């Protein structure tokens, strides 16, 4: 069984709920525990799409946006590109595709050219593309340079660096991506805000969107029934 969990995303200028980031979770039985899938590629795109529609049908109608994570292999998968590319035609909140720092489980290297081609198709279909976890994994500045013309948002994940680098380094990295987003006329999102200390980063760098445990933890979203696969 699969279900989307959602973490609220808040608009900094308004202080209001802007939408949710959706996280796919699965469990073996109705009585089992929800957990992160070991292989996201194991799910058919039609199941993913059915679950997405069932989930969004239960969310508030005034949401501005909903975002989905795709690793590099999913991002360029023709089935995802085609199915999600049709999503904008159905109305509802703005759908944002977040390209994560993960390569995917397959052995094939995803070239920057393929990522740009897929991002352009999403963009032409009315979807927005966010480079998630900028500065970590595959999403280094060199790749972002290539993707800049076809993305609209950077997201910096505090949880990826917390405890591994000092506060000064974190501030420098947030400053870099915030200023870069401003120059490129992209939105900037700050993820992983977990305590009062992180509010200083919000105050000093004024991201457009924030999310994290301080504002709301991921939780199971209501749908008519768990989707069995």
TrEMBL record:
TM segment ranges: none
UniProt GO molecular function: cyclic-guanylate-specific phosphodiesterase activity
Domain of life: Bacteria
Listed Pfam families: EAL
Domain EAL stretches: 1-229
SUPFAM superfamilies: EAL domain-like
Name of this protein: C-di-GMP-specific phosphodiesterase
Native species: Lacticaseibacillus pantheris DSM 15945 = JCM 12539 = NBRC 106106
Classification lineage: Bacteria, Bacillati, Bacillota, Bacilli, Lactobacillales
